[in-house]
Amino acid sequence: MPFPENTPPLPLPDIPASFTSADRALAARQAQEAFTRYERPTLPRWWRYGLHVLLFLVTLLTTTLAGFSLRAGALDYVHLELFWQLPVAQWSRFLEPGLWFSVPFLGVLTVHEFGHYFAARYYRIRATLPYFIPFPLGIGTFGAVIRIKDRIFSRREFFDVGLAGPLAGFVVAVGVLAYGLTHLPPLDYLYGIHPEYRFYGAEYARYVYQPGQSAGVVLAQPLLLQGMAALLADPARMPHANELMHYPLLVAGVLALFFTALNLLPIGQLDGGHIVYGLLGPQRAARVSVLLFIGFIFYAGLGLFSLRSEPNTWLYWAAPYGFYLYLVFRRAVPTVRRALLLSAGVWLGQVALASAVPTVEGNPGWLVFGLMLARLTGIFHPPAPDERPLSRGRKVLGWLMLVIFVLCFTPSPILIR
């Protein structure tokens, strides 16, 4: 996910028409040197490269340990204590299933970010190498980002740099899923995790899962996974949906699709925001971004409050949630009054829908991501000096990426039932 700084360049001096091309090149270099004086001094190369390598290695460790927990069906913190609790000779026993998750998953993220990087370099836009973000909970990472260090001057450049990452990552993610579906282990693998299933054989799902029974941690199935499973997987080896968490390659592929779709959200400076900006231009892209952001927050908070909620829920959480809505919507509208009215309208709509249909629920985890979008990356896309429309081929590719977003997206990649 690239985040361009887009600081306005210093104005070039007026150049007489009699200047030669060499004089113009010299003036451009002098203007660029004047601009770079305002930048933070560059760190030594060994420090910068060492930081990238260190973050990648730490993320490889956290995702490997997360893969060990995910294979056991747990969404937990990473168990670093296993390294000193188990003898060195037994480390491979818990690292191997984790590596079957972390290597393909980080491989997709790496290809995604280098797609942005090489597209930026093609246009001679300075960009950093990927910064991987380790995290000691859940899947072990928050993903990766690169930093664009120059201003992007055209709608085409925004489009190409934004599209290159998810397109490259999507191709590799499909390959990971295809390999995982065509190389499913026999049911003995599942019986090794759940020995009690052996008694029921291939029909274990009919007896194990009873209506109303908790299923634990469940991997979501986006439309693309369902289609690929129907075409590629051996039905005799394809596990029940509640057992997909035990298959590291499938988990890596589904999460890779989810991260691809997450970046393709057509909001602000996400990759999807760059694509929609390239397709629609600044004004229509801004309207689409605002409307989708409002719908995004509406869904995220759906079900938190209703007329059936406990009094303590309203007493302790109404004020923080109202303040949260104001914080995120203040960046979507120009005035405080409009932000308050929009916040009130969204909240009333959530309460009305949750009260009328009690089974409707959103995903409160998205509220954190919504806050990051509103306060850090921004809801609106920065303008470019060159607003010439895209070529027909790029437009077709852009709309195709939005179709890919629909095929890959799930509101919750991992469900707890």
From TrEMBL:
The chain crosses the membrane at residues 49-70, 125-146, 158-181, 247-267, 288-307, 313-329, 396-416. Its main location: membrane. Keywords: Hydrolase, Membrane, Protease, Transit peptide, Transmembrane, Transmembrane helix. It comes from the Bacteria. Residues 101-298 form the Peptidase M50 domain. It is found in: Membrane. GO terms for biological process: proteolysis. It is a multi-pass membrane protein. Pfam families: Peptidase_M50. Its cofactor is Zn(2+). GO terms for molecular function: peptidase activity. Belongs to the peptidase M50B family. This is Site-2 protease family protein. It comes from Hymenobacter sublimis.
